[in-house]
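#lab-general

N.A. 3:47 PM
ok so I finally got the sequence cleaned up, no stray characters, all 341 residues accounted for. can someone with queue access submit it? mine expired

B.Y. 3:52 PM
send it over

N.A. 3:53 PM
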Amino acid sequence: MSVSGLFTLNVVVLLLAGCAPRVATSFWKIGTPADSTRVGYKVIYAEGKTRHCYPITEWSDGPENDTYHQLHHHGVAAESEQMAYRIYFDKKQTIDPYCKRTPQLELAQSYWYPNDSLLEAGYGDDILRVSGTVGVGSVKYWNGKLYHIEEVGERQQLIVEQSRNKAIIAVNDIDWTVPDGKEDLPETRTIISMEVQYTLRAGHRDMRCDVVCSEPIEGLCTGVQTIPAKGGKDTVSIILPNGVLLASWGTDWPVNDSAKYAKETVGLGVFIPKEYAGELVHDKQNNLCILISQITNHKSQMCATAHFYLTCCGATKENHPVAKTAEEWVAYLKKWAKGLK
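B.Y. 4:20 PM
back already:
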């Protein structure tokens, strides 16, 4: 059995035994009834559909295919007892948060879409409508406006590591053509490969993001969206001695179904250490910071790297939120950022 297959089997055994680790990952390929012999196969009902799914540790495909709908909950996810985050497997690659009402691991039961009985039992849920924004801490590109990571040769998502205390999930963009305004001169356009890793630790609601590019580029950015995505106003940029803090606070429906779901009040935060924090930019939907990469030796190759941190609060979803107002959220983020570097 391959290493990835053994990892999948071990995760399934842990879940079936009721011994789920303190952090967990969730990554499911949508298949057909013919996949019922695969280890960990499940029939999952979500988004009004019955899906035949099996767990995976990595998946790759080209941009010509509908990668978003190949995977259950549309991409790889990781959770701690406080929060869960998924990464959309498409050009957006947006980070979308799922908040816990009570501290517990849930995705092995809810698969990101809790049914009515789970919600009545106190399970959490998706709390943010990210639309086409940066969400919280997604890596995008800025060249006078916000761009998704679109022109790529191949996309890959994978579970890099999972233990009781740490989970790392990642996105690889192979042969990404950077939207640098040279469309009329294709022979001079910049093509790179980029890996973005998100690390979630047990007992944490925040994640660290590490960005590795095959060569330096200008314009990579991250940040927080306004809430709602159109018309939100409670976003601030704060210059701290050790870096830049971006904060957002607002109330919106988390999904388009405003009849079944209530509005959620959400706080978003991103901290970029001083050496990686560049120009602050924004549009009507996003509060952003350009990332300055540093040349370092990564896996025996000279690469351009940067890192930052992201976090989230569900003020109306959590039983005991860390903040209930925009002012409390900014105060919480300032204390959080002091311990980061």
